[in-house]
Amino acid sequence: MNKIVFFIISIFVIMFSGCSSNNSLTYSKSATIKDGFHSREVRDVYIDYALLADNSTKSLFKKMELPKKVIVTDFVDVTSLDNHRKLGYVLSNNIKNSLINNYDIAVVEAEVSKFFKISGNGLKILSRDINKLRSTNFNVQYAIVGTYTYSANELIVFVKLIDLKTGIIKGSYAKTFPMGEGTKMMLMTK
């Protein structure tokens, strides 16, 4: 009898000790890399960008009433404040998807404002003067602004909800991820 109880407890410990929750933002996957005639199997870390967006929007709005409309900028590298990489588009588009699919919030497309510009380098706020952004034709009170920074080993993502009428940050979210090959590719791809 003791052996059966020990066996059952052992099974539960094994099952639950290595489990990751469905709420994990990263997952590991095997991939085969071919180099000429040779191939090798590697494990890589991937980021669930949709879940990252869902978690960040949930965090941004947890202490306030949902706004009717927001504008979402492309995520930019903290160092250059410019978006030349695929990663910035992926992050901002996942935030837009999360807002549209999970909340009753209208996402205003940026080109409708004279203070925002979409170029080959992404979406830019053309003024840091808060009074210009308060103009009546803009008519959006909140902007979701994202930045990221990275090293050889990690990616750090920051998301802020900014009240454009006051300049006050109403919500903030930050998350650090291990650097994987997929993320490196998006940082190298324009």
Would you summarize the structure shown here?
The chain is an alpha/beta fold. It has one domain (about 50-190): Rossmann fold, CATH 3.40.50.10610.
Counting DSSP H or I runs of 4 or more residues, the number of helices is 5
| Gross CATH architecture | 3-Layer(aba) Sandwich
Shape: elongated
> Taking all residues together, what is the mean pLDDT?
75
Proportion of β residues? 25-35%
CATH class group: Alpha Beta
Tally of structural domains: 1
Can you write the helix and strand succession as a string? HEEHEEHEEEHEEEH
Flag low-confidence runs.
Answer: 10-23
In the CATH hierarchy, what is the superfamily?
Answer: ABC-type transport auxiliary lipoprotein component
What integer value in Å does the Rg equal? Answer: 21 Å
CATH fold category name: Rossmann fold
State the end-to-end distance: 63 Å
* Secondary-structure content class: alpha/beta
| Number of DSSP strand runs | 10
Q: Percent range for helical residues?
A: 25-40%
Largest sheet: 6 strands, mixed
